[in-house]
């Protein structure tokens, strides 16, 4: 009986790299797709800070909606380093196949299919994790997408529709048979939303049953947990979502620990400031002044959330409406904390 990754000891050896089609993925730590979070600036930063693979926000398969500003930024991969993995969401096989082709035309090197997201907007159209209830439709979508593109297709699922219908294993085998190249599994059912703790037994079962790389996802918040989950499930990699918000250095921390068994020290305040300033500049550049300033607010909030006495700063920062003022405010706040820390030392 393997120890539960939620508690207890472990570390043993670990697969250090794996491939998705022609792409060798060095570090077994992947940034999960998160709508409204894993935009290009954030993906680039996570990649620079150690993520072996990063996955885009989901793009709707309804190409008639692609002319919106939101879709245009999600579809823009000019100059992005690879492999570029783009997630598509929808419930119609032909539309999904078409969306896959169009994304490949625009630079996608891996197509990821969303059957893991419980967001209402997607589920109302029977897409995302709602698809897990209809295995025939799952097969039709996988078949249509895999046969429509020459790049590898990956799939993201939950462990099933609800605790009584945990069909993740069936879907995983089907995906492998239909030519899917890798599979990410979030250790909750669709009905579980984000409640309770992610479970890794179903993921371990899936890993034993298929030969394609499986990525374990759900509630992985640091290096030790990543190690335990990998050892428990035998997965090829861990996939990190919420724990990366405001902490893009989590990828190098996990990758380093997995490779050496040693914990990296937390980044210094100077480094956090520098990373945040770079992130801000990229947001302003990518989205333009108005949108960039707006989108920066939530990211800055995540960065400073874990630092003491950040509430007043966040309130003030959220009132600022120009890029220069945001930069100055971040610099000044960190400068004060760094000076205070130096004096106390
Ligand atoms: C804000 C947010 C947006 C998300 N958007 C997507 C998405 O677009 N596609 C998807 O497959 N999963 C999406 N997810 C689910 C995550 O990819 C991941 O499976 C989930 O958060 C569990 O991992 P974690 O515990 O590491 O956060 C989203 C999650 C969050 C928190």
TrEMBL record:
Catalytic reactions on record: a 5,6-dihydrouridine in tRNA + NAD(+) = a uridine in tRNA + NADH + H(+); a 5,6-dihydrouridine in tRNA + NADP(+) = a uridine in tRNA + NADPH + H(+)
Catalytic-site annotation from UniProt: 117 (proton donor)
Entry superkingdom: Bacteria
Signal peptide: none
Keyword field: Flavoprotein, FMN, NADP, Oxidoreductase, RNA-binding, tRNA processing, tRNA-binding
Stored InterPro entries: Aldolase_TIM, DUS-like_FMN-bd, DUS_fam, DusB, DusB-like, tRNA-dHydroUridine_Synthase_C, tRNA_hU_synthase_CS
The protein's Enzyme Commission number: 1.3.1.-
Keyword Flavoprotein part of the UniProt annotation: yes
PROSITE patterns: UPF0034
Role of this protein: Catalyzes the synthesis of 5,6-dihydrouridine (D), a modified base found in the D-loop of most tRNAs, via the reduction of the C5-C6 double bond in target uridines.
PANTHER family: TRNA-DIHYDROURIDINE(47) SYNTHASE [NAD(P)(+)]-LIKE
UniProt-recorded name of the protein: tRNA-dihydrouridine synthase B
Source organism of the structure: Microbulbifer harenosus
Annotated gene: dusB
